[in-house]
Amino acid sequence: MGRGVIAEARSGCAINAAVEALGDHWSFLVLRDMIFGDRRYFRELLNGSIEGIASNILSDRLKKLVAAGLLTKEEAVRGRRVRYSLTEAGIQTLPILFALGNWGLDWREGTPELRTRQELMRAEGPAFIEELMDELRVHHLGAPPVERDGPGPLERLEAAYQRAAAKT
Amino acid sequence: MGRGVIAEARSGCAINAAVEALGDHWSFLVLRDMIFGDRRYFRELLNGSIEGIASNILSDRLKKLVAAGLLTKEEAVRGRRVRYSLTEAGIQTLPILFALGNWGLDWREGTPELRTRQELMRAEGPAFIEELMDELRVHHLGAPPVERDGPGPLERLEAAYQRAAAKT
DNA sequence: TCAGAGTGGTTGTATTATGCAATCACTACG
DNA sequence: CGTAGTGATTGCATAATACAACCACTCTGA
Q: Among A42, B65, B107, B162, which lies 20 to 30 A Cα-Cα from B117?
């Protein structure tokens, strides 16, 4: 594992280290949108966020996530779209987001469509997480495509969302 | 499940809901100390935290965690120790902390003793999480004690820490 | 009985982070 | 050549954080 970056950690605790790296509201939500929403550009993240992030905050978080080794940024040509990619460390935040989502599903309200998505993920279990991590490695790290029959994890997620939305 | 408290959520997303409830540095660390460090009193949390939380911040976070339904507080008799307990919702943040800790173990440095603890948990896998949640239900919710031969999860964690610390 | 330590905090102040709106320099496209 | 889109930055008001001092109360031991 590619350990590194002790940075200015407040302690040697692994939980604290993770919290220091990505422990604020917006960092989690940016990762969520990149992972589950397949958003990779500034404007996509800015307009696509259902919580409405401000552009200066997004700019700041992207910088911090790059500095923390969770994202990479393609060299910026001024005025041209810059693509952000997840690193392996970024991809491996998926189990954290999954755990957060499951907690939210059990203990908070939420829109039915989004609940359905989360329920699908929970129902498919750890295998879904692995499959999605593999797909992210293909898209973000250039790993060789996975052979599969049937729709990929992101497609199944989107389909679940659409099915649920259609019922209203 | 005891769903409730939509509160002033920014969106209907389960991940967002979890992040809103406990998505700041100190909330996570307070939960960590209560769950893994068995600390239940203001002074214990204040002095026991290796990151050094300030008393006004601790006061504020305890209040927020109670309001969010993750902790309960025994009715306060002035000048007498007040005990905080985890609710079921609080206990179920354990998988989140576990996921956070594993990420930190893989991608950040940390003291060898604390790394050993986290490695033990990972090695024992999901069964450890379940066992610890059961023990927390006994201590915090008054559930009937679990039958067990051999040391409980918190004892094994402490033992791993001591073994690692002795090697230095 | 009475000092000293311990209880869960509050208050004040300074510094830092956040949220919002407007703006900027640049490019791609018709 | 103009319009829309790119990734931001700037200024300003408000909120969160950190640090130290302090408070009213209780429990303990001599």
A: B65
